[in-house]
Design goal:
256 residues, alpha+beta, 5-stranded antiparallel beta sheet, transmembrane helix
Length: 256
């Protein structure tokens, strides 16, 4: 009972962690500060350039800002298409991971048996880990490109720095991966038996439960023998026959 309560509270903690991580990942998609750059042309006027997966924006110190969507989807670079796809996959898989975890948790009592609920929770944990992996690849790829272009001395175009949305996304993916890993450990330990439990156990002695009484002598006997009873009885009968033959007495009339 105590172990079940501990597992239940661990499931609740992992679910809250994964839910917070998924919310952080979702919040980065509409955020415009994936990359930013500050350019000061005049002392009193400074222009800020920032962009995300969907558009480029510019603002100045006067408060005027303008955003423009990317002109053509087919003309975009490959990494931008990949980051968009991975970010959307992270959001979708995180949503289904939350649904599966809610169904299989011990505190909700929605599913069937304990083993079935544990397997559903294990599936939700794996879905959360897939969501975190997709998000981690997205933010790592984006940050790597920004840093590589910034440190490249031969890059002549405008250089950007990593925005706040990328760091928020990293925090969300860490919560998703850590919560999903702990949740998969506890649910998988209960729902998926190990291979050692499926192996047939070797009997303690050479005799099974059915035949153990056959190879035991009565309590009155002080000597234990490993000879099967049939063979033992055969030896006993032969011995009695031999003694009976040796004890026979012959008279004179028997030879006549």
């Amino acid at each position: 009972m105590v172990q079940r309560a501990v597992v239940m509270y661990m499931e609740i903690g992992c679910f809250v962690s994964c839910l917070c991580g998924w919310i952080l990942v979702c919040s980065t998609l509409p955020t415009e500060y994936w990359t930013f750059s500050e350019v000061g042309s005049i002392v009193l006027t400074t222009s800020n350039y920032y962009s995300n997966l969907w558009k480029d924006c510019i603002s100045d110190t006067t408060g005027v800002s303008d955003c423009k969507d990317y002109p053509s989807m087919l003309g975009l670079p490959v990494y931008l298409h990949a980051c968009r796809a991975l970010a959307i996959i992270a959001v979708i898989t995180g949503f289904f991971g939350g649904v599966l975890t809610l169904i299989g948790m011990k505190c909700t009592k929605i599913g069937g048996s304990e083993i079935a609920n544990a397997r559903v929770t294990f599936a939700g944990a794996l879905t959360y880990m897939v969501s975190g992996s997709c998000g981690l690849i997205t933010y790592s790829w984006w940050a790597n490109k920004v840093v590589r272009e910034y440190l490249d001395p031969h890059f002549r175009a405008q250089k950007f720095e990593i925005g706040a949305a990328v760091f928020v996304g990293f925090g969300g993916t860490i919560l998703l991966l850590s919560g999903g890993a702990v949740l998969s450990y506890f649910s998988g330990k209960e729902g998926i038996p190990s291979s050692s439990q499926n192996k047939p156990r070797r009997p303690v002695s050479y005799a099974t439960a059915r035949t153990r009484r056959t190879y035991m002598l009565p309590p009155s006997s002080s000597r234990v023998t490993l000879v099967p009873p049939l063979f033992y009885e055969g030896r006993k009968s032969r011995a009695t026959k031999a003694t009976s033959k040796s004890r026979q007495t012959f008279s004179r009339d028997s030879f006549i």
